[in-house]
Design brief:
Layout lengths: L1 H20 L7 H13 L4 E4 L5 H8 L4 E5 L2 H10 L5 E3 L12 E7 L10 H11 E12 L3 E8 L2 E9 L2 H10 L3 E8 L9 E7 L1
Parallel strand pairs: 1-2, 1-4, 2-3, 4-5
Antiparallel strand pairs: 5-9, 6-7, 8-9
Length: 205
């Protein structure tokens, strides 16, 4: 049921999500640093899981990464295809990637674990590890803390979603449990548009 609720919420907000966030990275230098570091170390095809309207996939592509996107929301995928027609976007779930074992050089989860309880992260990261070639890399971006916040309105729409803020060490442990070795982490406090601190982890299979 939770996946259906997530899909419905993001189908609802897809158009406004892109309009609000399309150029967000311009004012977020540390976010760009995390993406640039990943682009430096990754080799081979990359899938951004939970890609939304495609802005991070497009940014990775601009950095020379062979990136495509997948998202649970068909409406998000449709928006991404219109916004970035030269890139590939597919409907898919991060818990069941439609790729062969060991076929990816990288997986990016840019805030796509925010609706996933901590106890379920090892299974998610195990799926990432399955898809990665040995030596492949994962970039995980998330809201850090230890709380669950219930959203009733976002991007100009009424909806119902739980947003999970995860402790950095706990996410790193979940990555390690899944067979991904932590290579780097970056954290920063909230900016004026955010409600809490942010974190990024880069791991390698």
């Amino acid at each position: 049921m939770r996946l259906n609720d997530i899909r419905a919420a993001y189908d609802l907000v897809a158009e406004d999500y892109l309009a609000i966030l399309r150029h967000e990275l311009v004012a977020k230098p540390f976010d760009r640093i995390a993406l640039s570091a990943f682009a430096e170390v990754v080799s081979g095809p990359v899938v951004e899981v939970g890609c939304g309207p495609g802005r991070i996939t497009a940014h990775l592509h601009s950095l020379g990464v062979d990136a495509r996107g997948e998202d649970l929301s068909p409406a998000m995928v449709a928006v991404a295809r219109r916004a970035y027609p030269d890139l590939r976007f597919d409907v898919g779930a991060m818990t069941a990637l439609d790729v062969a074992d060991g076929s990816l050089g990288g997986v990016v989860s840019w805030y796509s674990i925010v609706h996933t309880p901590l106890a379920e992260l090892p299974a998610v990261f195990t799926e990432f590890a399955r898809a990665l070639t040995p030596g492949g890399h994962a970039l995980i971006a998330f809201k850090t803390g230890d709380a669950v916040h219930h959203l009733t309105r976002a991007y100009g729409h009424d909806l119902s979603l739980d947003v999970h803020w995860h402790p950095v060490d706990a996410v790193a442990t979940a990555m390690t449990t899944a067979g991904l070795t932590e290579l780097a982490r970056l954290t920063r406090p909230a900016d004026e548009q955010e409600k809490g601190p942010q974190a990024w982890l880069i791991g390698r299979r």
